């Protein structure tokens, strides 16, 4: 795995895998319901969400912040880039693929993968594989 993908962290990598899996399933459904155009539309919808999410994550993890204000500014800037990229990519696909785009498959896949990216928040970075050592008390005492 290259350094760029490793930098994404386990939660984002997991969310991207979920998004890719959902995109494949939705492309198969799109193919069954609307043929090749439906499949391609679903793939494009999923890709818009995946690309914008990965771009925002890479931007947010470019450098470390020294204060809470810098962290918030970096997160807001990354989210702004994500929204701008979503708008540009949605417009680009709708403008260039107008003749054959299946809008239900495109928008449906986009929304599902967008929601799956939000699930990255619930994925743990690392799970403890070993019990606490003797000098660590588990569960921690409440003060």
Describe, in plain words, how this protein is organized in 3D:
- With 143 residues, the protein is mainly α.
- It has one domain.
- The relative contact order is 0.18.
| Beta content | under 5%
Low-confidence stretches: none
- How many structural domains are formed by the residues? 1
Helix coverage percent: over 70%
Evaluate the radius of gyration. Answer: 19 Å
- Following the backbone from N to C, one meets helices and strands in this order, namely HHHH
The number of strands is 0
Shape field: globular
Largest beta-sheet characterization: none
Question: Could you report the average pLDDT, rounded to the nearest whole number?
Answer: 86
What is the CA–CA distance across the termini? 43 Å
Total helical elements: 4
- Structural class of the helices, strands and pairings? mainly alpha
Index terms:
globular, 143 residues, 71% helix, single chain, mainly alpha
Topology summary:
Layout: H1 3-6, H2 9-60, H3 68-96, H4 103-118
